[in-house]
Write a structure and sequence with these properties.
Helices cover 35% and strands 16% of the residues. By secondary structure, it is an alpha/beta fold. Helix 6 crosses helix 7.
Length: 231
């Protein structure tokens, strides 16, 4: 199973109001294991940003001025995430809203919402009543986020990938030791192995009359014996 842990940084909160993506970061997982493949791209939003927004992600207008537009990187991004990989996102509706707005503006097909897996909802279900932003989850699981002085899409994706795997069960997410399924509904599998081995011919042992008499006397002294021999 291929999953893409994904994060974006934006110029604001609402693409309908004209806000754009300025940074995309992705981390590839296969069978819940990082492969080392990542995707990261800074993007020219073609608009000025507020000082408050720049303080969040640290990407100034001057820095982004020579970066490609989303339209110029759209195909590379879509090729990386593929057609059917699960998109693992913290607060998925936010990022999906921006991604699909950007894709629609450059005449690319939108990404179905059912491809997204929201780790924010996952965390709220696992830790009801607790703070479940990325920093708090890193603290809960002992994930080092000391490099996160500002929000960055690739760094946040890498941190989220670690947190996500911890929420799945840590280093051995596939090792399930308990289940909510009734026992009778759990699939049972029997593995039959054909093992060839040499066997020895059975040896015949003759018992002497003295040995038989000694054994019979011994059994008689065992109370409630299973052989039905009584004294």
């Amino acid at each position: 199973m291929r999953e893409i842990v994904l994060d974006t940084e934006t110029t604001g909160l609402d693409p309908v109001a004209g806000d754009r993506i300025v940074d995309i970061g992705c981390v590839e997982l296969v069978n819940h294991m990082p492969t080392g493949r990542v995707y990261q791209q800074y993007i020219n939003p073609e608009k000025k940003q507020s000082a408050e927004v720049i303080a969040v992600h640290g990407l100034t207008d001057e820095f982004l001025a020579d970066k490609p537009t989303f339209k110029e990187i759209a195909d590379d991004f879509l090729n990386f995430i593929g057609d059917d990989s699960v998109l693992v996102i913290h607060n998925a509706p936010f990022d999906m809203k921006f991604l699909n707005a950007e894709l629609s503006w450059c005449d690319r097909p939108c990404i179905p919402m059912d491809r997204a897996f929201d780790t924010l909802l996952m965390a709220r279900q696992k830790f009801p009543g607790s703070r479940v932003n990325l920093n708090d989850l890193c603290k809960r699981f002992g994930v080092d986020n000391s490099a996160r002085t500002v929000h960055g899409a690739l760094l946040d994706s890498q941190l989220l990938a670690e947190v996500y795997l911890e929420m799945l069960g840590g280093k051995e997410p596939s090792l399930v030791l308990k289940t909510d399924q009734p026992i009778e509904k759990i699939e049972k599998k029997v593995v039959v192995q054909n093992v060839s081995r040499e066997t020895l011919t059975a040896r015949a042992f003759e018992i002497s009359t003295e040995e038989l008499a000694a054994h019979t006397e011994f059994v008689k002294n065992i109370k409630s014996n299973i052989w039905g021999i009584s004294s």
